[in-house]
Amino acid sequence: MKFRTALMALAACGISFSTLADVKLDLPYQADLVLVNGVEQDGNDTLTLPNGVNQFAFTYIDSLRENGDDYLYKSDVIIVKFDASDEALKLDLPKLRTAQDARKFNKSPQLALVAANGEKIDFEQDKLIKSGLQFGRDFEKEIAVYNQSGKAAAVATTAAVAATAAVPTTLPATAAPAATSPKPPVDQQQTRNVAENMLNYWYEQADEATRARFKAKINQE
Questions:
Q1: Which PANTHER family match (predicted)?
Q2: CB-based contact 19:165 (threshold 8 Å)
C-alpha cells in the first residue's frame, strides 16, 4: 500500500517518470523517435533513461537519391529493447544512399547500441506494424497491445510506467499484486524494482517543500 501511495504521490507532485537518469542514449540524425517507454515522443535529442530495461521506437528518416532524383525515405517503426545501467550509449545506424539500400534496411534493419568504450551491448528489436492507412496512428495504444504479445522486444515495465504517469490515481493491476497472489513473474518484479529506483532518485532530487508534500501524501493512506 505504501509503495503504491508513493508512486501516486510522486505523480501528484508533478514529477515525470520519463526523464529519469542513469542511462544516456545518443541518437543519430536519421532516427526520429516515435515512443520512449510507452509514451509518444518525437525528435532525436539525447535520451536520459532509468537504469534497467528500457524500450524505444523510432523511424529511419533521410533523403535518398534514385535515378537522379532526391526523395525522402521513412522506414517502418522499429522497436528496440535493452537492459543497461550507468551507461552512455549511442544508436548506430547505417548510411542509406540508394533506394536499394532503403529496401534492404526496411526488410531487415541493421543497427547497433554502442557503449562509450566501443563495446556493443545486447538488445532485442522488432517492428510496430499497422496494416492499412498509416495516418492518425495511436502509437501508445499500439505499443501497449504489442507489450502484451510476448514478442521479442516486448516489455512489462512500459505499460505500467505509462499508465501511472498518465493516470496517477489508478494503479495498474500488474504493478501491485495482492498479498495472496503467487510470486510475481520476473517482468512484474522488474517493474517494481524500476519504480522503486524512480522513487529513490526523485526523492533525492526534490527540494524540501516537495519532499514534505510527498510525505504528507503517503501518510494520508
A1: UPF0319 PROTEIN YCCT (PTHR38108:SF1)
A2: no
Grid coordinates given for 129: 506494424
Per-residue pLDDT tens over the stretch 75-87:
999 999 999 999 9
Pick the residue with more confidence: 201 or 137?
137
CB 165 within 8 A of CB 194: no
- Distance from C-alpha of 215 to C-alpha of 201, rounded to nearest angstrom: 15
Would you place residue 170 in the very low, low, confident or very high pLDDT band (cuts 50, 70, 90)?
very low
- Which pTM was predicted? 0.62
Q: Spell out a b/e string for 136-169, using b for 16 or more CB atoms within 10 Å of the CB, else e.
A: eeebbebbeebbeeeeebbbbbbbbbbbbbeebe
Owner of C-alpha cell 537518469: 21
Question: 3-state secondary structure string, 17-41?
Answer: HHHCCCEEEECCCCEEEEEECCEEC
Q: Distance between CA atoms of 53 and 186, rounded to whole angstroms?
A: 12
Q: What is the mean pLDDT of residues 190-204?
A: 58
Residue found under cell 495511436? 138
CA 176 vs CA 1, 31, 39, 75, 125: distances in Å: 8, 35, 21, 38, 28
- E strand or H helix at 88: strand 87-92
Spell out the domain ranges in the chain: 2-219
> In percent, how much of the chain has pLDDT > 70?
63
**Hunting for cell 521506437 — which residue is that?**
57
Residue 38 to residue 161: CA distance in whole angstroms: 8
